[in-house]
């Protein structure tokens, strides 16, 4: 009887060790497999002309955005009439009722433009970190980067869900993270982090202790007279922003 118990314990121990070995082997295999989105983008090459076209498009978009913001500020520099204002500024029809809360400006940035600009990282000379790749899907952004160390390499990636907070900050929730195709248990890790595992300054907050870790960008605090982000939406291969103009405090408004 005792011998049978010992034999069964031995066989059970061998089975457990075997399962652990198989589990570690599977984890090791998955860790060195590239995520699907990264594998699809890794071999996509960009020429200098592609990068220049992306830079030109972004520069033109930025210039148009600045003109819209400056024009809105000029249209608010008049005597207020409730929310609406009658304005008379250059290039604006006279006596036009203007409500800055209805002046929405849209900006679209494509996945192609972002990856073309990021591809310039090949010239950085840092061989341990590869060029980041971005995939934009419905309601999420997948970001991946190849990391090399000790003659081995793997892809670290994360899925981010963008949204607006009640205070007008732009938040990216870290929905998931992977080493290769191996999921990183963020919620389990967060349980062992101190409650104050938060890094914050006037531009950004990184909170790893939240139920869903997130990154907040404090856009309204980065510069004076900054435009306000009304919404952000991710579509297939495209990020869409909607902005509202900064508000000018009218003389006597607080009295």
Give the count of structural domains: 1
- The helix/strand order is HHHEEEHEEEEEHEEEEE
By DSSP, the count of extended strands is 13
User: How many alpha or pi helices?
Assistant: 5
Helix content: 25-40%
Q: What is the overall shape?
A: globular
Mean pLDDT: 78
Which residues form runs of ≥5 with pLDDT under 50?
A: 81-87
Report on the biggest sheet: 8 strands, antiparallel
Classify the beta-strand content into a percent band. Answer: 25-35%
Global Rg = 26 Å
Keywords: Membrane, Transmembrane, Transmembrane helix
Describe the protein.
This protein has five helices and 13 strands. The chain has helices at 2-31, 36-42, 48-76, 111-118, 186-191; strands at residues 85-87, 96-98, 105-110, 133-137, 140-149, 152-164, 170-179, 182-183, 198-200, 204-207, 214-217, 228-235, 238-244. Helix 3 packs across helix 4 (111-118). It is an alpha+beta fold. It has one domain. Residues 81-87 have low confidence and may be disordered. The strands form three sheets. Strands 4, 5, 6, 7, 8, 9, 10 and 11 form an eight-stranded antiparallel beta sheet that branches. A three-stranded antiparallel beta sheet has the order 3-13-12.
